[in-house]
Design brief:
By secondary structure, the chain is mainly beta. It is 10% helix and 58% strand. It has an 8-stranded antiparallel barrel. It is globular.
Length: 159
C-alpha cells in the first residue's frame, strides 16, 4: 500500500509540474534560480541575452520562439532557450505569453537537455520581462528551481 501511494504521489507530481521531484537520497541538489537578463530581439523569433545576478545561470542565452496562438493583444509562444555558463549548458522547452500592446512577456521552461553540471537537470524556470519595441531590447527576471542530478559536485555557483 505504501509503495502504491508513493507511486501515485510521483505520478501526480509529474502530471502537475512536468518534472519529477528531487530525490531525497542526497543524489540531487535543488537550487533556487534567480537572476536578471538584458537582451536583444534579433527578429524572426530569435533572441540573445546576458544573464547576471544569478550564480546558477550566469552567462548568456540564445533562444528561438514561434507564435502558437492566442488572440491579440496577447499571443502564446513556444520554443527553446539555451543557457551557456562556465559549467555547462541548459536547454529549456519554454511556453508563455507575449502582450503585443505592452511588450510584456512571461514564459515557463522545463529542462530538455543539458551538459556539465546541468546534465539530467529537472525543475522549472520562469522568465518575466518587457521588450522595448523601438530598440528591440528587453529586460527579464528569472525565478524557479533546478535540481541537479550530481548535486553541486563541480564547485560553487558561477558568481
Amino acid at each position: 500500500m505504501r509503495t502504491a501511494l508513493a507511486l501515485c504521489a510521483l505520478l501526480g507530481a509529474l502530471l502537475v509540474t512536468g518534472t519529477a521531484p528531487a530525490a531525497s537520497t542526497g543524489d540531487h541538489s535543488c537550487k533556487k534560480v534567480k537572476g536578471v537578463g538584458v537582451g536583444q530581439d534579433l527578429g524572426g523569433g530569435n533572441t540573445v541575452a546576458t544573464i547576471t545576478k544569478s550564480g546558477l545561470l550566469k552567462g548568456t542565452t540564445a533562444a528561438h520562439f514561434d507564435i502558437t496562438g492566442g488572440a491579440p493583444p496577447v499571443l502564446t509562444f513556444a520554443g527553446h532557450i539555451t543557457f551557456t555558463t562556465k559549467k555547462g549548458t541548459l536547454t529549456l522547452d519554454l511556453t508563455g505569453t507575449f502582450d503585443i500592446s505592452t511588450g510584456a512577456f512571461t514564459g515557463v521552461g522545463v529542462p530538455s537537455s543539458g551538459t556539465g553540471r546541468f546534465a539530467g537537470a529537472t525543475g522549472s524556470v520562469t522568465l518575466t520581462g518587457v521588450e522595448d519595441f523601438v530598440t528591440g531590447t528587453f529586460t527579464e527576471t528569472l525565478s524557479g528551481q533546478l535540481c541537479l542530478v550530481h548535486g553541486d559536485d563541480e564547485g560553487g555557483d558561477d558568481d
